[in-house]
Each structure stands twice: as structure tokens, then as C-alpha cells.
Amino acid sequence: MPYEYDDQNVFAKILRGDIPNQTVIETEHTLAFHDINAQAPVHVLVIPKGAYVNYDHFGAEATAAEITDFTRTLAKLTADLGVAPDAGGGYRLIANSGEAAIQEVPHMHVHILGGRPLGAILATAASS
Ligand code: 5GP
Fold it and tell me: Which of the residues 5, 73, 102, 109 has the least number of beta carbons within 10 Å of its own beta carbon?
């Protein structure tokens, strides 16, 4: 089933400039900004400017230019934010997609988390 994009979601409003954000970097196809509720010293959200609901939607339907721009921007950010493994100790990428992952905002995004030891990949209480 094709995805339907809700253009009233909060990241769509950020992209339109209706809601302010703390931008880290903006390129032709990608925007990165600080998460409003940071879970680590470094917590940046990277989003495509295109109307994609989640990661698999983006991977299936984005243009090669959008995917390349997104991937290169994210890679550059790990260095710019000081969390690249060689110099900053490392980082975690999270792309919550859909109900099971408790995706809050239905616009494709990747969280970059770092700046402290991040612990196990999943919370113990949530595992089974
Ligand atoms: P999700 O659970 O969808 O992967 O995460 C959505 C993220 O968006 C959350 O970490 C939340 O703190 C962040 N967020 C929600 N609304 C806003 C907002 O208005 N501005 C910013 N900068 N982040 C937001």
C-alpha cells in the first residue's frame, strides 16, 4: 500500500518555516536540526526536504540525488558534531518507522545520538 503523507506534521511545518528550529546544516535536499527534547549531549534530527513518511518510503521512492545528499550530509554531520568514531567516541543512528517503533512524527527522520556512552541498543524493559 502506498504511503500517504500528512503535510500537517511538525517537521513539514518546520520545513515550511511555520515552526522555528535550531538548524545545524541545510543543503539542497536535507535539513538537520537539534531535537527539542535531547536524549544525549548530541541529539540531532536529519530529515529529507521531500515528503516521505519513513525510512523505507524514502529508500524506495526518493531520487538518487536526494538519497546521496541525505547520506553525505549525515556522514559530514558526525564529524562536524564531534561524534565520529575516530575522534569523538562514536554515535548511534535511529530511524523509528511505524507503530512498533513508536514513530512520533510521520516525516522520515534519522536521529544522531552521541556525546556519552549510549548503553544497550534497546531498553531492557522493552525486550522480550
Ligand atoms: P520519533 O519518535 O518520531 O522518532 O522522534 C521524533 C522526535 O522529534 C522526538 O525526539 C521529539 O523530541 C522531536 N520533536 C518533536 N517536535 C519537535 C519540534 O517541534 N522541534 C524539534 N526540534 N524536535 C521535535
Answer: 102
Q: Kindly report the pTM of this predicted structure.
A: 0.96
Ligand 1 and 19: CB distance under 6 A: yes
- The model's pLDDT over 108-121, given as tens digits with 9 standing for 90+, comes to 999 999 999 999 99
14: CA distance to ligand 1 center in Å?
A: 11
Can you tell me which atom of ligand 1 is nearest the CA of 104? 3
Among the listed residues 85, 91, 89, the one whose alpha carbon sits nearest the alpha carbon of residue 111: 91
Distance CA 96, CA 18 (A): 24
